[in-house]
From TrEMBL, chain A:
Keywords of this entry: Amino-acid biosynthesis, Aromatic amino acid biosynthesis, Lyase, Tryptophan biosynthesis
Family note: Belongs to the TrpA family.
Protein's UniProt name: Tryptophan synthase alpha chain
Pathway assignment: Amino-acid biosynthesis; L-tryptophan biosynthesis; L-tryptophan from chorismate: step 5/5
Native organism: Brevibacillus fulvus
Name of the coding gene: trpA
Catalytic residues in the record: 51 (proton acceptor), 62 (proton acceptor)
UniProtKB/TrEMBL annotation, chain B:
Pathway stated in the Swiss-Prot or TrEMBL entry: Amino-acid biosynthesis; L-tryptophan biosynthesis; L-tryptophan from chorismate: step 5/5
Entry protein name: Tryptophan synthase beta chain
Subunit text: Tetramer of two alpha and two beta chains.
The organism of origin for this protein: Brevibacillus fulvus
PROSITE patterns referenced in this protein's UniProt entry, alphabetically: TRP_SYNTHASE_BETA
NCBIfam families the record matches: trpB
Family: Belongs to the TrpB family.
Keyword terms, alphabetized: Amino-acid biosynthesis, Aromatic amino acid biosynthesis, Lyase, Pyridoxal phosphate, Tryptophan biosynthesis
Gene Ontology MF: a single term: tryptophan synthase activity
Length: 273, 406
């Protein structure tokens, strides 16, 4: 069992002077093998923590881009057990970047909440984000995460004003600040009051705050990094994967497709330098 | 039933019906649900709100709807006396308006200018569009692409009433996906928009609130049957998709010695993969913000439901039904597409009433049940809606069967 003090997320945020880049991909989009190589490329491109999406039939918090990624992964039959094995394989390959699973609550319930966190720890993951499990419903998951030295990452939204304290009390690892109202997906503009909102979350919880939803350009990454501890980019990266699907599908062009994705992520992460 | 020890109040303050219900939604919506909960609690204590709702239900919707003794149907089946609660005579043709009026008034009271709704058969969409027109609100209705094809008449009605019909193109393109799209839209516009959920599903306080707006069905039925025959019925039967007409009908009878039966859609049969018999064949899980019975695979991926009736074509069910199934207070059963079609024809020919395909499921169950009962027993069917919207699909299904209506 991993002790809380040794959780990779805590190690990462022990130094809060550095801003962290946190990409998201859906595992199994377009295949488990390609996802494995994408993760390696993401790490080489300067990622500090990775969010690994578990495909779900009804991803309520996700916009069209990640919905399509989910559909592609589901068509490959990817399950929680596959994603856990995927994590173990990354660890075996020497990747020591903190990893959190992004999954909806129903698959976790069917897997078994306690068993899910036990297996996360066993396979070398560091935590989970469950977007449809708000503070009022997460007691069992919070206890299980704690038992296995993992973090259940709490989300805070711009509408959470009166709930920031409640969420802060049970949050651990870092807080996932939702940048704007709506589902995941690129947005051309971020809210003008975002900085103030993130400051409030940090002050109230004492935890590092990473911002996600709608961030898609190096400029936005730089803007958000100025007042947060980390920047989460999902749909924009998944979109790059989607654009390169045909290249990734052919052995002779796969390297080229991977390079496009890596370049894109390097550009995004460069917003933090 | 005297053996039924229901808690004095379900749901509890966490929105739980036993282990079912709750609020499994993205954080962005939690504040809106809290506001809704407190606005609803205030409204229920406000005599002016209650008076306005009562006025609209009476003068606009045409309530109370009749409780009608179906004499020829009773004779034809040769058993229990059958009464029909005529929700099909409610304005807009179904029970859906009871709830849409309640939530529409609440939206207005909360200062919201626009409402959104999901719809399967289109009845809730029509009810919401109607209420929006009546109250001067803008209205968007999310409807699965597949259902838009099946329910062309209702799509036109919604547009005529000034609503925008937004096709849901994700997933199975039916009610489940329309609800997903409505929730996603709500997340993006939560501060200005009121989401009028059409059934006893979704996160707390919806299952509770919708029940409170629909229980008028059972309250009227109870008073009417006492007046007409001087006693309560032996059994009450209603169809269950999300389950709002059934909860509305059952709730006032929960503590009486009255058998309650909910009828789900068995589609092509409960021994096939194509059905919508959630309570019969599902397992507990989370859909659209509530823990309830759910059609899902072993990994928790939601499965496609199937029913000839768009309103029952849903892989989840209201959490209170899940609770009533587990406590044993309500018996749940399922009838097939074919049985429902037969029931449509039977009711048309014995009573001159074209039932909605949804309601025909309850009629089909009574066609099996009534002949087993004694002639002095009484059974009430909640005839939740009229079938005008379905005549095209009924015609197509009957022609396919080869036994077209002559």
């Amino acid at each position: 069992m991993i002790q809380t003090g040794q959780n990779r997320i805590d190690q990462l945020f022990a130094d809060r002077s550095r801003k962290r880049f946190i990409p998201f991909i859906t595992v199994g989009d377009p295949s488990l093998e390609v996802s494995f190589e994408i993760v390696k490329a993401l790490v080489e491109a300067g990622s500090d923590l990775l969010e690994l999406g578990v495909a779900y039939s009804d991803p309520l918090a996700d916009g069209p881009t990640i919905q399509r990624a989910s559909q592609r992964a589901l068509a490959n039959g990817v399950t929680i057990a596959d994603v856990l094995a995927f994590v173990a394989k990354l660890r075996d390959a020497g990747i020591n970047t903190p990893l959190v699973l992004f999954t909806y609550v129903n698959p976790v319930m069917q897997y078994g909440v306690e068993r899910f966190f036990a297996d996360l720890a066993k396979h070398g993951a560091d935590g989970a984000v469950i977007p449809d499990l708000p503070a009022e419903e997460n007691a069992e998951a919070t206890a299980a995460a704690k038992k296995y030295g993992l973090h259940l990452i709490s989300l805070v939204a711009p509408t959470s004003e009166s709930r920031i304290k409640l969420i802060g009390e049970q949050a651990s690892g870092f807080i996932y600040c939702v940048s704007s109202l709506g589902v995941t997906g690129a947005r051309s503009q971020l809210r003008s009051d975002l900085a103030e909102f993130v400051q409030k979350v940090k002050a109230s919880s004492g935890l590092p705050a990473a911002v996600g939803f709608g961030i898609s350009t190096p400029e936005q990454v730089r803007e958000v990094a100025a007042f947060s501890d980390g920047v989460i980019v999902g749909s924009a990266i998944v979109q790059q994967i989607e654009r390169n699907l045909s290249l990734l599908a052919q052995p002779e062009t796969k390297a080229e497709g991977m390079q496009h994705i890596k370049n894109f992520v390097q550009q995004l992460a460069s917003g933090l330098q | 039933m005297s053996t039924f020890n229901q808690q004095a109040t379900v749901p509890d303050e966490r929105g739980r019906f036993g282990r079912f219900g709750g609020k499994y939604v993205p954080e962005t919506l939690m504040n809106a649900l809290e506001e809704l909960e407190s606005a609803f609690a205030d409204a229920r204590k406000d005599p002016a709100f209650l008076a306005e709702l009562a006025f609209l239900l009476r003068e606009y919707a045409g309530r109370p709807t009749p409780l009608y003794f179906a004499e020829r149907m009773t004779e034809a089946l040769g058993g229990a006396q059958i009464y029909l609660k005529r929700e099909d005579l409610n304005h807009t043709g179904a029970h859906k308006l009871n709830n849409a009026l309640g939530q529409g008034l609440l939206a207005k009271r909360m200062g919201k200018k626009s409402i959104i709704a999901e719809t399967g058969a289109g009845q809730h969409g029509v009810a919401s569009a109607t209420v929006a027109a009546k109250l001067g609100l803008s209205c968007k209705v999310f409807m699965g692409e597949e259902d838009i094809k099946r329910q062309a008449l209702n799509v036109f009605r919604m547009r005529l009433l000034g609503a925008e019909v937004v096709p849901a193109t994700s997933g199975t393109r039916t009610l489940k996906d329309a609800t997903n799209e409505a929730i996603r839209y709500w997340v993006s516009q939560v501060e200005e928009t009121f989401y009028v959920i059409g059934s006893v599903v979704g996160p707390h306080p919806y299952p509770y609130m919708v029940r409170e707006f629909q229980k008028i069905i059972g309250e009227e039925t109870r008073a009417q049957i006492l007046e007409q025959i001087g006693r309560l019925p032996d059994e009450v039967v209603a169809c269950v998709g999300g389950g709002s007409n059934a909860i509305g009908m059952f709730y006032p009878f929960l503590h009486d010695d009255v058998a309650l039966c909910g009828v789900e859609a068995a589609g092509r049969g409960v021994d096939t993969a194509e059905h919508a018999a959630t309570l019969t064949l599902g397992r507990p899980g989370v859909i659209h913000g509530a823990m309830t019975y759910l059609l899902q695979d072993e990994y928790g991926q939601v499965q496609e439901a199937h029913s000839i009736s768009a309103g029952l074509d849903y892989p989840g069910v209201g959490p209170e039904h899940a609770y009533l199934k587990d406590t044993g207070r309500v018996r749940y059963t399922a009838v097939t597409d074919e049985e429902a079609l037969g029931a449509v024809q039977f009711l048309c020919q014995t009573e001159g009433i074209i039932p909605a395909l949804e309601s025909a499921h309850a009629v089909a169950e009574v066609m099996k049940r009534a002949p087993e009962m004694a002639k002095d027993q009484v059974i009430v069917i909640c005839l939740s809606g009229r079938g005008d919207k379905d005549v095209m699909s009924i015609q197509a299904a009957l022609e396919q069967k080869g036994g077209a209506a002559e």
